Amino acid sequence: xxxxxxxxxxxxxxxxxxxxxxxxxxxxxxxxxxxxxxxxxxxxxxxxxxxxxxxxxxxxxxxxxxxxxxxxxxxxxxxxxxxxxxxxxxxxxxxxxxxxxxxxxxxxxxxxxxxxxxxxxxxxxxxxxxxxxxxxxxxxxxxxxxxxxxxxxxxxxxxxxxxxxxxxxxxxxxxxxxxxxxxxxxxxxxxxxxxxxxxxxxxxxxxxxxxxxxxxxxxxxxxxxxxxxxxxxxxxxxxxxxxxxxxxxxxxxxxxxxxxxxxxxxxxxxxxxxxxxxxxxxxxxxxxxxxxxxxxxxxxxxxxxxxxxxxxxxxxxxxxxxxxxxxxxxxxxxxxxxxxxxxxxxxxxxxxxxxxxxxxxxxxxxxxxxxxxxxxxxxxxxxxxxxxxxxxxxxxxxxxxxxxxxxxxxxxxxxxxxxxxxxxxxxxxxxxxxxxxxxxxxxxxxxxxxxxxxxxxxxxxxxxxxxxxxxxxxxxxxxxxxxxxxxxxxxxxxxxxxxxxxxxxxxxxxxxxxxxxxxxxxxxxxxxxxxxxxxxxxxxxxxxxxxxxxxxxxxxxxxxxxxxxxxxxxxxxxxxxxxxxxxxxxxxxxxxxxxxxxxxxxxxxxxxxxxxxxxxxxxxxxxxxxxxxxxxxxxxxxxxxxxxxxxxxxxxxxxxxxxxxxxxxxxxxxxxxxxxxxxxxxxxxxxxxxxxxxxxxxxxxxxxxxxxxxxxxxxxx
Length: 717
Fold this sequence. Notes:
There is one protein chain. It contains two helices and 44 strands. It is mainly β. The longest helix has 12 residues, at 2-13.
């Protein structure tokens, strides 16, 4: 009897029932569509889906201040969406002729699709009032903004607001092949100058911004099913010169060929292949302050092949603010020769993802033969009800004379509309060049998450063993046990510039295992959200840190903020002042400032300039003498001639290394894949050639110069 009660309680606790929803049937048409922003095709007249949007940011459930009409139709090859977005003051609409994916702080509409209607992942298709696109893919509340889906859009500003037409080819989606295909959708609209986001259907305040469990299902019939084949050949010519013995000498002057392909093995499973990929066009990483860093710096993945589908490798109970962020961080792949990726669904509930890369060669100490690094990741997920799942992970990095392997499992269980439990448990085995003795370690985390209209609450308990390691992912530190608590209630204001006030608090208690010492980290502050996309976050942070067996005070004050202070000017700022540790062999206490500010100025609809200033310094606590100060200035200027062609120049100055870099790019993109790039870059350093070597000098000397041309064309059937 007791066992039955326990079993019944367990089943009740983990019941993930879905509310009954009416399935919508959009209008089917054979009429051709001309994408011009005018909804004048005859099929639009009977294709209205809805005109009642409800807000979810800053507050749930309010009528959107301006009307939005959504029209949905389809033909055998495409989903068709039409939008009429009304605004009584169209001069306030923010719409720029920007590059793809650069419209987040503008007015936009968005189509969120769950192609399998299984509440496990979604595709997001954005367009601003001029038809400029942005896209992403999300799974388990993790968003992959590097996705580049092929879809078509056109926007049109009108006297009453704006209109947008969007065409999404079915071959750009993965879905279950059947006579009747059921998908899910949520439509969004953002009104930028009011800082309001809304959806249709309305989000349930009890579930918060959990889109996957609140989709409106719709049915399609008579659509074409595709076995996708894409071929993307590319040619790159590069010419590089470097400073040698007081002169710039040519070190590279040759063309290279590369080939990338996507093969749809089924409508749900695809194979991606790349050989000798070139990423010359990828924007250089913005400089980060490197001095006095305890952990390796984190750089986002920007390379297209590795960006796409990276959300498949996200693990549960990981946080971008925690020590253990991921088991897969493809920036660990330096210069791949080949890449292979297999991803998609293998059954109604099973999903898999495999990634293999043969990385840049390493020179052997014994001879000049070349060796390679092997990077492999395997991922499996089994879907439960709603957005819950259980998963398996295996990673393997094989370098010459050393390796790192990791295996384990993770999962997510939705307890109710607002709450979920996440967990992971991994074991690693590693060797290195210094010793072939294998080291093993364990990492595990269990987390409770609650997010709804009223509050955000999270509780994490974590263990990171001394010898736990991941060379395929990103790990800041190991050898700790940690308890992490955060709580943020939300209060809403009416008729005020700030529309939401959220007191913040967090508490972190960490045990450094080897030293058996404790770190404490307490945060108390407030977050304000308001008009003009304004968010202000400030808090005090009494804390301590253990480094090399010693405990140091690290009390500090933090400020973060952003705002569209003028229609043409957006500002972001981040500042910290307080006590710090000097991370050297014999560490000592100090204090200092660290911060950055970025100005984004839209001088014209088609011209944008960004200026970022980063600064850090450190003073000894004993005598207030300065150890260092560090300044980085970065300017990025972009002229977007039209939605296909832009010109960009980036200039960056680093005072610590006394370097000046420039990066110029002209880029034409018809669709993702069909591109032409022309680029030039240079590196200047304050050095002088003495006749024997280079010494610090007062003038900048050009140490490196590079030019490249790249063209590729996407063949798609």
